[in-house]
């Protein structure tokens, strides 16, 4: 693996609508919720695990969370839960990986066309 010792920031995670479990809680399935967690939490956490030894002290990991972690909206329960998990992973890794910096950004929901509920209904934002 190429060295990341000279890199400052390594951004991991997805903020887009890929694998987002959107819709009311009645519409959620285990597969949809697991897909959201796989893309937003599990994948980035394991990527950080495998890359941390190649990041110089003072280097950074930057995760993608979302505003729904702190301000859930109707139809966004699973997305909010995944974003809250990203925040917890970020805080935990910051302690474990210091002096490597670990942060997350949390943009608000943006209607990109990917914000269609699982039932194909109206956009939520």
Task: Describe what this molecule looks like in 3D.
The protein is of the alpha/beta class. Strands 1-2-3 form a 3-stranded parallel sheet. Strand 1, helix 1 and strand 2 form a beta-alpha-beta unit. Helix 1 runs parallel beside helix 2.
Strand content: 5-15%
* Individual helix count: 2
Structural Rg: 16 Å
How many beta strands in the DSSP annotation?
Answer: 3
Question: Which sequence of strands runs across the widest sheet?
Answer: 1-2-3
Question: What is the top-level CATH class?
Answer: Alpha Beta
- Alpha carbon gap, first and last residue: 41 Å
The appropriate CATH architecture is 3-Layer(aba) Sandwich
Overall pLDDT confidence: 81
Low-confidence stretches: none
CATH superfamily: NAD(P)-binding Rossmann-like Domain
> What is the 3D shape?
elongated
Structural class: alpha/beta
CATH fold group? Rossmann fold
User: Number of domains in the coordinates?
Assistant: 1
SSE sequence, one letter per element: EHEHE
Tell me about the biggest sheet? Answer: 3 strands, parallel
Helix content: 25-40%
């Amino acid at each position: 693996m190429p060295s990341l010792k000279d890199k400052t920031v390594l951004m991991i995670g997805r903020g887009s609508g890929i694998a987002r479990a959107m819709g009311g809680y009645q519409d959620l399935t285990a597969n949809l919720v697991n897909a959201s967690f796989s893309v937003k939490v599990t994948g980035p956490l394991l990527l950080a695990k495998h890359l941390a030894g190649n990041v110089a002290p003072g280097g950074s990991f930057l995760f993608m969370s979302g505003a729904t972690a702190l301000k859930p909206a109707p139809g966004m329960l699973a997305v909010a839960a995944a974003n809250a998990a990203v925040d917890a992973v970020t805080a935990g890794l910051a302690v474990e990986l210091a002096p490597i910096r670990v942060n997350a950004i949390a943009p608000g929901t943006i209607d990109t066309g990917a914000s269609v509920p699982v039932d194909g209904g109206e956009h939520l934002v």
